[in-house]
Write a structure and sequence with these properties.
- One of its GO terms (cellular component) is membrane.
- Keywords: Membrane, Transmembrane, Transmembrane helix.
- One of its GO terms (molecular function) is molybdate ion transmembrane transporter activity.
- Pfam families: MFS_5.
- This protein has 10 helices and no strands.
- With 261 residues, it is an all-alpha fold.
- It has a single domain, classed as Growth Hormone, Chain: A, CATH 1.20.1250.
- It is globular, with a radius of gyration of 21 Å.
């Protein structure tokens, strides 16, 4: 029944997209090489674009690995002596309900994005969102048998993902030129896919996999802090030297995001 309902929803979504969305074709006559060259020049000329791409690539790599590893992580936290492996109709973990709660948590995160933007710019609060995400994925490393704690941390991680998507979309529209945006992000999908494929093909232990995710999220958080610093420096360069405090810079950054939105 759930899959049948999903088909109807997808059909409705396709109808809305076809009838209400307009396509951005860019320069249809420009050669592909020109698009890649233009995107590469954008990355080289603006450090903020490079840092933003690193943040997205590393965060998404950890997210995609998590999507494939949350099931064995929660299953491994169960007491194996009480699992009836012959009962296929009643699995030890209700995957459908768990996934549904993940989606609710993600939706809550996306809805919280606008609230967070009332108090700070995405460049500011995303620093802490990425750190929280890293802390959540560290639970399977240190508490591999604490199923309830692990599940709770996974819900918080999904909440962080919900905040991540609109925040990244906002920052991409702010820093990356529209005509090169898709190609720029495709460059950063190369390391993203490489990381995911290597981790999955090597068949590492679950603990090692989550350690890798935490490591990548740590690097992502570092890049996010650097991006925030670069954003403040950009605002400071537009203001009179030595006359703008850190608090005023934060307010100006927040105001610029509100204006773009």
């Amino acid at each position: 029944a759930a899959f049948d309902t999903a088909i109807l929803i997808f059909v409705a979504m396709c109808f809305l997209v076809v009838t209400t969305w307009s396509e951005n074709y860019g320069d249809a006559h420009a050669p592909i090489s020109q698009s890649f060259l233009s995107a590469w020049k954008s990355i080289k000329s603006d450090r903020k674009i490079f840092l933003l791409g690193i943040v997205q690539a590393l965060f998404e790599a950890s997210m995609y690995v998590f999507v494939l590893e949350w099931t064995p992580a929660l299953t491994g936290a169960l007491d194996q002596e009480f699992i009836d492996k012959t009962d296929s109709k009643n699995p030890p973990i209700p995957h459908g309900y768990v996934f549904a709660t993940y989606m609710v948590a993600m939706m809550m995160g996306s809805n919280s994005f606008k609230v967070l933007c009332n108090y700070a710019a995405p460049e500011s609060f995303m620093r802490y969102i990425v750190i929280i995400a890293a802390a959540c994925l560290s639970v399977p490393i240190f508490l591999p048998r604490a199923q309830v704690t692990m599940f709770t941390s996974f819900l918080v991680f999904e909440f962080c993902i919900g905040v991540f998507w609109p925040a990244m979309a906002t920052m991409r529209s702010k820093y990356i030129p529209e005509e090169a945006r898709a190609t720029v992000m495709n460059y950063f999908r190369i390391p993203l896919n490489f990381i995911v494929v290597v981790i999955l093909l090597k068949d590492f232990e679950l603990k090692v996999i989550f350690m890798s995710c935490v490591f990548f999220l740590g690097l992502s958080a570092t890049a996010m802090f650097l991006l925030h610093k670069e954003s403040l420096n950009s605002i400071h360069s537009l203001a009179p030297i030595n006359k703008v405090s850190i608090e005023q810079e934060e307010q100006m950054l927040h105001l610029s995001v509100s204006t773009d939105g």
